[in-house]
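User: I'm writing a tutorial on reading structure tokens. Could you give me a worked example: one chain, its sequence, then its tokens, then a sentence or two explaining what the tokens reveal?
Assistant: Sure. Here is the example chain.
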Amino acid sequence: MSDKEMFSDLLPAIENGILSVSGSVPVVFEGIEHVLEKNTSLSEASKHDTHELLYLRDGEIDIRIEGSKFTLRKGDTVIIRPQMVHALKVSSKQADMLILYFGFVPDPKELQVVANVTIPDPTTGGTKTTGPRAPLPVLAPTSLESFMKFATEGEERSKKDPYFIVSGDYKYDVASVAERIIREKTEARYSQDLMMRLLTFELMLTLYRTMRYEWEESLRVKNGKAKELVLIAKNYMDSNYDRGITVNDAATYVFLSQGYFTRAFKDEVGVSPMNYLMNIRIGRACELLRNDDIKVSAIATSVGFASAQRFNVAFKKHMGVTPMDYRKNKSWNTKRRTSK
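And here are its predicted structure tokens:
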């Protein structure tokens, strides 16, 4: 039996197993690549029956989804849910993006490639490719979370959001699979249909992992683990500020993404971890500056700054004066400490 025959026999078994669990199977209907110039709008406002994955290879775009506005930068990936009104505009000199449209069908026989459709582009006078406009197979009313048998609480939470941004290390994995899907769709390769179906499953599993990871981290915060993790990280920062550690180092120490850690830390301590770390360093620097025998450059290093220049800038921003002026003005120095 050839490899093709082996996989051709195996795939229906996989699809039938997924059907028995979720009632549908995933399919990528269309893959598009765009390189757009600054101020170009891909669409004033559009919505699709499918999920839309947008991966920004390079540049910067402003995006609006159901009233929410934010900026995507190089390396970012967003998943827009079906029937969500969205629009985007290039804000950098140029933007290179990759878009996949995917959904779920109740019958594996409906898995088929929908040809790209071009429409007039009033901006350039030419044409552009948009979301799937050709007739699609019958789509199953299945959410991404339901398909993956996401936990009930996680499903209810994520249904409130018209989109989610793929973050953490998994965003590189998602981007890699998306690139392979585009390449497979644009090049006539051996067993293309079979490979597309396998890559679609890989994309779904990779998305599942990143969503599960984000959800588990949010549960740690929600279920009271935040206080414990924040205290551990705070002690770590108190003990290691002089080693030049970053907020990401502290987040990694307690196994949280930087975004979740920053929110949990601010909720618990009242200030952001960045400000907390800066307060420790500047506070210790003020103590050392009272000793005229210690050079400012030595103080900068001893409190965790990479250079005296960075220390000077940070100190002035924080205290309103340079380290040398702080040292010279003894009366102001004392008054400042007393007022605190």
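What the tokens reveal: Residues 3-217 form a domain with the Jelly Rolls fold (CATH 2.60.120.280). The first helix runs from residue 3 to 22.
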